[in-house]
Amino acid sequence: MTITDQQPLGSPFSAGSTTEDVLAGLDLSGVTAVVTGGSSGLGLETTRGLAAAGARVVVPARRPESARAALQETERCEIIPMDLADLGSVRAAAAQIRESVDRLHLLMAVAGVMATPERRLGPGWEGQLATNHFGHFVLACELYPLLAAAGGARVVVYSSAAHGLTDFRWHDAHFRTGYDKWLAYGQSKTANVLFAVQLDALGRDDGVRAFALHPGKIITGLQREMTLQEQVERGWVDERGKVIGADFMSPSQGAATGLWAATSPLLDDRGGLYLEDCDVARVFSPGESFGDGGVHEYALAPEGAARLWEASVTATGAAPLGRSTAR
Predict the structure, then answer these.
(1) Among 144, 185, 274, 298, which one carries the catalytic annotation?
(2) Is the CB of residue 97 less than 8 Å from the CB of residue 146?
(3) What digits encode the pLDDT tens for the residues 25-84?
(4) In the chain, at which end, N or C, are there fewer CB atoms within 10 A of the end residue's CB?
(5) Is the pLDDT of residue 221 over 80?
(6) Any catalytic annotation for residue 185?
(7) Do 288 and 170 contact (CB within 8 A), yes or no?
(8) Residue 326 has pLDDT above 60, yes or no
(9) Could you give the CA distance from residue 242 to residue 187 in angstroms, rounded to a whole number?
(10) Which of 137, 136, 119 has the alpha carbon at shortest distance from 127?
């Protein structure tokens, strides 16, 4: 992927498209998918959509009983315990998946946290970076042999327009000098894009392609650690919690870009791209306002992506990618 590839393809879908629109007429029988966060919000819409189209869907969940309740009417769906914030739990979940699946066609990294109070995980890692990036990084590395075995797999990583808040903070990635919950969130979303860029670079020879995306503005459980007043002040909801923000989408519309990334033939032989509104996003131009859409060049930089990958391997102890890592 080069920066010149980062431009819209003329997709037949748009910001208003829903999961039903994107998946209409598709038969995903024989496809196996893992969807993190697959029992709530956009992940729930994703799970239901894939399963309705015939895919087998594995949902790692921090609260398995709640997940089973949410998905009790969804066929072809399996739930296993996993906490993205605990890398031991991530590795245990990956081992369980490897025992029951011989190949994996889709890994949908939907789960995440946003604008949380300061939390330290593992050896003192900043919590949003640890959950949103390190957790998915280790899961992808652990499941890579299954992705390579599929002979044409896609990894879809949910980022956000909030990646535009900051490049990766190499000087203070874990906010040792003072915590800002929005900069921490923005950094974790930039990390999601860089992760997809490098995973695609490393995996393409094995047929593993990766994409990052902005799903749009949607009120889901992602805002659970924000107060109602914070959301009112941002113009997202009114005092009763009703969504009033301009350009906000339904959960079905918000999940559509991820499902388009997972299934669109327009993306065959492509990867390392940032998507929005069911198409490839344009590159953000200096001088534009934060909400104008697009992807910032720093999030696509190959050097930054490679540097973050190596730093993530060192931090987490993840195994190098390759078919030889199969258990």
Answers:
(1) 185
(2) yes
(3) 999 999 999 999 999 999 999 999 999 999 999 999 999 999 999 999 999 999 999 999
(4) C
(5) no
(6) yes
(7) no
(8) no
(9) 29
(10) 119
